[in-house]
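User: Structure please.
Assistant: Input sequence and predicted structure:
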Amino acid sequence: MRTTAALLFAASLAAQLPPVPVPPENPITPAKAILGKLLFWEEQMSSNNRVACGSCHTFAAGGGDLRRAVHPGNDGVAPSPDDSFGSPGIVRSDANNDYLPDPRFGLQAQVTRRASPSMLTAAWFPELFWDGRARSTFVDPSTGQVAIALGGALENQALAPLVAGDEMAHDARTWSQAAQKLAVVVPMALATNLPPDMAAAVAGGATYPGLFAAAFGTPTITPARIAFALATYQRTLVPNQTPWDLFQAGNPAAMTPQQVNGMNVFNGPGRCNLCHTPGLFSDRQFRNLGLRPIAQDNGRQAVTGLIADRGRFKVPSLRNVGLRPSFMHTGQFTNVGQVFGFYLNGGGPNLDNKDPLLVPLNVPPQAANDLINFVSNALTDPRVAAGVFPFDRPTLASERIPPNGLLYGPASPGTGGLLPLMLAGVPANVGNQDFKVGVANARGAAPAVFLIALQPAAGQFLGVNVNVALGAELHVPVVLGGPPGVAGAGFGSLRVGLPAEPGLAGLTLFTQWWVWDAGVAAGAASSRGAEIAFF
């Protein structure tokens, strides 16, 4: 007699993950794939050297973001009902890459209004982003010519963050500026613990022009070639060794009896398979779950202009979803159990254009637990969870350097009792043409000075906290922006390209901002100190 597991195996044998689609205009090659892997983890792709593609899409989060930050929504107030949870991106900077306060986030990292979707199965979707605005036809942004007629959504998606002001770019950044920067930086200068294939690719003084020549035949770096390389790398990430995949391949012991029962619930009373079709575990459609009022985010409608698409968002793949720390385009749920509870009750309460497939479910507690077990564990590729090839990655500089830098010592308050904020999070790698330090939360339009010394200190001068050794320090004067005299409205930048001088590596400077402030008795305020370590 055939076992239940064997019967289930026989019934679903044809449902495995299909081969990765590859557009003929961008065939996969080893040289292009390793270039794409380098670019995906290259923080120097951003305008502040702190954000890589892999900052928001990491394997430990199932291809999403381990971080979860609040976006205050349309009302600009947090907490409030229209809040969502997205990815921290770049601190806003103007077209010259000088710090510029953002109306929502000030001079803190901006947060995307939607959670980062997983990139692990992106290659199988004909349109990408939650709203599908990355279309199938890829047009070369430099020439305006069609470079991929069909199947180029991944190429379109890959380029967008490079010029997005809340993700990787300063205001008005162009794709050409991003490409030009790659021509002069040292590959992977910021990362440590490079996987073997990445370390081999950059060994011996490799340059990006040389790596592009190996991948494309000539050293020219263009936005389209960046997109082609990034998309190629992502097409090599095939998470098809889950317990479910092994079960489908004929190993009835690959899933536990509870997971087998959970799969049966998934395809039966749970109705999950109606939208999350086994194989990819998505039907690649856009649906409205009734999650939020459409006025908060109209989703697919903003792309197509169709009233029928209001409030619709992409149905994501459930592969590796058990690794994710947040769920839905809003990021509002933090575990699979919460998501199932949402569907158990028939989805969200907002009925306008809500998908008719969403109905209350009759799933008893043990069956629900088995279903959650199946989705959380049987759809996780152990290579993704362990971070082993091809799902390996380096350590990024932004994981070693805190957002505002390596700070120490106390600050002294200025007008309104506010403490000037040191902004020293940009990595000080030699040759960094985008290096800068900044100050925020100071008195508007006040004169300030940036102090640089070779030693730290702890004490006071004229009643103001001092964190650098005075006597041989360097003073760099800066007049802050912001409305004159307004508490907390003052901000400024000191931007300077660091010479590509290897002898600077290992040098540590100790720095601090002083702000001349007529609103306090001492006449000045100061920031915390910041160590700037060259490497």
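The chain is about 20% helix and 15% strand.
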